[in-house]
Design a protein that fits this description.
Layout: H1 2-14, H2 18-55, H3 70-89, H4 94-114, H5 118-127, H6 129-145
Length: 149
C-alpha cells in the first residue's frame, strides 16, 4: 500500500496543478448551476400551482362557485395561466413534455369547444350534463397539476 501512495505522491509532485484547479472549478460551476436550476424549477412549479389554484378558486377542487358563464370566467383567467404554463414548461423533463402539452391542450379545448358550444350550454341545464362537465373539468385540472412535483 505504501508503494501505491508513494507513486501517487510522486506523480502529483511532478505534474502541473492548473489542470486539477481547472477541473475543480468546472465541477464547482456545474454544482452551482444544478442548484440554481433546481431552485428555478421549484419556483416555477410553485408559481404554476398557485396560479392555477388562485385562478380556479371556487371551481377546483370542489365546484362550489360555478359561474353561469363559465367560458367568460375561464377565458379571463387564461392569460395568467398561460404565462405560468409557459414559465414552467421549460422545466418539465423531456420524457414528460408530450403529456404535459396534451393536458394543457385538453384544458384549453374544454372551454373553447365544450363549454362554449351553444348546444351543450342549452342542454346542460335540461339534462343534467352540468355535473358531467364539472367532473371533466376537475379531471383536466388534476391532470395539469399532476406534472408539478
Amino acid at each position: 500500500m505504501d508503494e501505491f501512495t508513494e507513486q501517487i505522491s510522486a506523480y502529483l509532485s511532478h505534474m502541473p496543478m492548473w489542470p486539477l484547479g481547472l477541473m475543480a472549478l468546472i465541477i464547482v460551476g456545474i454544482g452551482i448551476n444544478e442548484l440554481v436550476d433546481r431552485r428555478r424549477r421549484i419556483n416555477a412549479a410553485e408559481y404554476l400551482r398557485d396560479t392555477i389554484l388562485e385562478s380556479l378558486a371556487g371551481l377546483y377542487p370542489d365546484p362550489v362557485n360555478w359561474p353561469q358563464d363559465i367560458e367568460a370566467h375561464l377565458y379571463a383567467r387564461l392569460p395568467a395561466m398561460k404565462k405560468a404554463f409557459v414559465h414552467f414548461r421549460q422545466h418539465v423533463p423531456q420524457d414528460q413534455l408530450k403529456d404535459f402539452n396534451k393536458d394543457w391542450e385538453s384544458y384549453c379545448r374544454f372551454f373553447y369547444s365544450e363549454v362554449s358550444d351553444e348546444k351543450i350550454s342549452a342542454t346542460a341545464v335540461v339534462s343534467g350534463n352540468d355535473q358531467d362537465s364539472k367532473k371533466y373539468f376537475h379531471t383536466l385540472v388534476s391532470n395539469l397539476l399532476r406534472h408539478i412535483p
